[in-house]
Structure formats: structure tokens, C-alpha cells
Amino acid sequence: MYGYTTFHDELIKKLIKSVHNGTSSHAYIFEGEKGLFKHEAAQLFAATLTCQNTSVSPCGTCPACIQAKSKTNPDIIYIEKSNDKKTIGVEPIRTLNDDVAIRPFYSQKKVYIINEGDILTPEAQNAFLKTLEEPPEYAVFIIIVENSSALLQTVLSRASLIHFTPVSDKLIEQYINEKYPEHTSQIEFLTRYCEGIPGVADDVIADESFEALRTESINKLPVLLSKNKLSAYAIQKFIDENKDNAEKIFDFWISYLRDVTVIQCSAPDRIINIDKNDKLRILAEKYEPTQIVNAVKEILNSKKMLKRYVNLKALSLMTALKI
């Protein structure tokens, strides 16, 4: 749309129309899962707000639009996490607060896009509040998050929440066909695996180790589900050998076990990992549904613990023992 890769055209059209009507807000929260191209939508909306041909914005031809596309528009400022930080602290927000006092260079609006707003510290959010409450008339803020519950209620109440939902399989299939014509043989699996998140296809295709690890993960499932307690150490070793991909392994297992449950519920047309159908059916016949459900529960819990930087060796052993 307008040269940007987006998947929520109707939603974006409403935002653009609000600019044309003069009814746009001063603050927005773009919420949705990673891979829904929220950042690109924010770029497009920012281009609309800063376009010099306001009646047809974004025109795509004025200096502001050209610079917006290349991310060099001085009236569009990006606030992002530093590579050496795990959160966005108070200092970048103080810099933003100071910058807000400077009028736009040549546009009617000055747009601030805060990426990964989920990791704004409470101190940073509190430091942002006064600017959010009393911004100059030219300032617009777009906070991009996966889950708006990570934001303080005081921030949420001062912004318009725009929710980006998973998209249709048809849109994802079209996206893959156009961008990756050499991967059409995988189109059915990729479309199902994305589960409405087109960015997943980009990650899968860019990851050269994806298929090897995915295959190894399904081969390890009988070991994970084994009642033999010694098997837990084999799982610990497997995860330790792939420690940089531990979360990915958990995701593979969750996806496979979800498919096993689908088969046990006599709904084979809903299988995601269709290329692993034979192995999944063997697992579905061998293990009780209650064990499968318990395994998914434990793996999901382990994924949460992983984000808290729990010792991986201990976590993987504990997970396998509980299953």
C-alpha cells in the first residue's frame, strides 16, 4: 500500500482519512503480534502526517514522502532500544521530551515512532506522561507494542489503541508467492505455519538451519514424552547443544503437539505441519491425550521461564522430568 508492505489496508485507510478530515489524534498505540508489519504501517501513517501535499497525503513524490520512505525524514523520529540494552529506559524519553519543543522542519506534523513499547520501563513511561498529556499541536506519537498490557494505564488512557489482528491465509499465500516464488513448493506448509502472521514466513525462509532443527525436534518428541526418567538427560543435552535456539525448539514442540491433539480429535485438515503427517499420526496413536496436553502446558511454562533468564540446563531437565 503506497509502496509500503502492509496487511491491514482498511484500518490504514481509516487512519489516512482521519488525517484528511483533520480528526487524527496526537497519540496512538499500534498493538499486535510481531510479524504483522506494524512498523511499516506506522511508517506509512507517519508519511501521511508529514506529507507536504496534505489534500492527497501521502503523495509519495514530495521531499517529505521520499525521505519518509528512506527513513531520513527529519520530522519522523524513531525511538528504539539500544543494542546493549534489554529495555528502553528514561534517557531516550528525556531526549524525546526535549526534542518535542523543536518545531517541525518543513511539515505540519512531527511524528515520534516508539518501537517495542512493551519494553519501556515504568520510569520511562512516567517521564513520558507530561509530554503525552500536554503535547504541542504538531506532535504525534505512535507506540508500537505486541501487548498493550505492558503499558501503564496512565499511558493507555491518553492514546488511541489500534489493534492489528492476524490476517487471512489467502493474504499470506499471496505474499509468499510474490516475494518468494522459489518457495512455492512449500506454500501450503508455510501458510499454515504462519498462523496469520506473515512475518513468520520471512523468518523461516531466512533461517538456513530452520528445517534441520525442525526435523530434529520432532525426532526428539518420543524422547521428551518417554516415561523413562533417564530420557530427560537426553533432552537436556539436546537443548544445551542448541541453546541459542531453545525458544524455537519449544515452539516446534508446541506446534507438533498441537497437531497431535488435532489428529486425536479427528480434525486432520487442521494440521499445521502437514509434511510431518506420518510421524504425527504415530505420536497420536502412541500417547494419551492427557499426556499431550500436560506436555504442552509444561513447555509453555518453560517458555515463560526462559524469558526470565532461568538457567537453561536446569530448566530443560525440569521440563522433561515433569512431562
Helix content, binned percent? 40-55%
* Principal-axis shape: elongated
Biggest β-sheet strands, sense, barrel: 5 strands, parallel
Q: Terminal Cα separation, in Å?
A: 47 Å
Radius of gyration: 23 Å
Characterize the quaternary organization of these chains.
single chain
Mean pLDDT across every amino acid position: 95
Helix tally equals 15
DSSP strand tally: 5
Q: Structural class of the helices, strands and pairings? A: alpha/beta
SSE ordering: HEHHEHEHEHEHHHHHHHHH
**Proportion of residues in extended strands:** 5-15%
Q: Enumerate the spans where pLDDT stays under 50 for 5 or more consecutive residues.
A: none
Strand order of the largest sheet: 2-3-4-1-5
Question: What's the structural blueprint in terms of helices and strands?
Answer:
Blueprint: H1 9-21, E1 27-31, H2 38-50, H3 63-69, E2 76-79, H4 90-99, E3 110-114, H5 122-133, E4 139-145, H6 153-156, E5 160-163, H7 169-179, H8 187-194, H9 199-206, H10 210-224, H11 231-241, H12 246-264, H13 277-286, H14 289-306, H15 312-322
Parallel strand pairs: 1-4, 1-5, 2-3, 3-4
Helix pairs in contact: 1-2, 2-3, 4-5, 7-8, 8-9, 10-12, 11-15, 12-13, 12-14, 14-15
Give an account of the 3D structure.
By secondary structure, the protein is an alpha/beta fold. Helices cover 53% and strands 8% of the residues. The protein has 15 helices and 5 strands. Strands 2-3-4-1-5 form a 5-stranded parallel beta sheet, sandwiched between helices. Strand 3, helix 5 (122-133) and strand 4 (139-145) form a beta-alpha-beta unit. Helix 12 (246-264) packs antiparallel against helix 14 (289-306). The longest helix is centred in the last third of the chain and has 19 residues, at 246-264. The N and C termini lie far apart (47 Å). 32% of the residues are buried.
